Amino acid sequence: MAVRRSALHRSIESTRSAVAKTGKIVNNLPVSIGEDDDYGRLMTSPSTDADIQVRDFQGPSGSGALPDLDGWEMPARRVVGEPVTLADSLMVEAGWSPMNFSDAGPNPPYLRIGGKLWVTLTEYEPCFSSYHRDRVLFRSKVPMAEHLQKYDQIMVDPLAFEECFGPGQGTDATFPFGAWLSIREVRFTGIELWARHHGRVTLPLQPLAVASAVWLRNADIDAPPL
Questions:
Q1: Phi, psi of 114 (to 5 degrees)
Q2: For residues 216 and 89, is the Cβ–Cβ distance under 8 A?
Q3: Strands of the sheet with 199-203, listed across from one edge
Q4: Pairing between β-strand 181-187 and β-strand 214-217 as defined by DSSP bridges
Q5: DSSP code of residue 170
Q6: Residues 24-43 pLDDT 10s
Q7: Which of 16, 43, 102, 221 can bridge 81 by disulfide, Cβ–Cβ 3.0-4.6 Å?
Q8: pLDDT digits (tens, 9 = 90+) for 169-206
Q9: 103 phi, psi to nearest 5 deg
Q10: pLDDT at 39
Q11: SS3 for 39?
């Protein structure tokens, strides 16, 4: 099935060209995030491994297609202010590979939204979860708040809402699509965002599973408006 692309992707490319002229590089090397023992007090509980799946991503067979790794290379370190998809950010910052995502859908890659339970059993932390079980019985998980704190702003393509909630949900009446929104707080009810012309906005967690339709950036330099 052909991948759908909106006008937002063309705007992203113009933004990348403008900010690339600065030559500034963020000194973030790929690290191995997502292993339970990397977080000390965190553990994965099979009984509370509540992964949220986006509607109809399994495809006709329901198996979830594995991505094609032929010719794959680790994404380059990002330029300060350069937009990057959520999928690319996890591969660069968290050491994920295409094997952690699914291609089963019109706008791949996809991940799962899950969580980790604190040892105290009193707090449950939302996480980006590998689509496939890459650790025998478990999935690699990256705490959402820890990953998003590396970025200042987020922008969502309406395709993410349409895949999660159905046709007609990718309108301005639903969410300020195409606008860069400042990241304030991550909760299980959603991500709290803010923008000057929109005020406080809550982004549901489910659309984040469409990792190709969510964009992140740092606002360290002025970028042309989208």
A1: -135, -155
A2: yes
A3: 84-85, 214-217, 153-156, 181-187, 190-195, 199-203
A4: unpaired
A5: S
A6: 333 332 222 233 333 222 22
A7: 221
A8: 999 999 999 999 999 999 989 999 998 888 999 999 99
A9: -105, 10
A10: 29
A11: helix
**Cα-based angle 116, 121, 123 (whole degrees, multiple of 5):** 60
The CA-based angle 108-113-116, given to 5 degrees, is 145
Judge whether 207 and 159 are in contact, CB under 8 Å: no
Q: Which residues of the chain have pLDDT under 50?
A: 1-3, 14-15, 17-63, 221-226
| Per-residue pLDDT at 84 | 97
Residue 136 is classified by DSSP as T
* CA atoms of 143 and 139, how far apart (whole Å): 13
User: Any alpha helices (H) in the chain, and if so which ranges?
Assistant: 7-20, 86-93, 144-148, 158-165
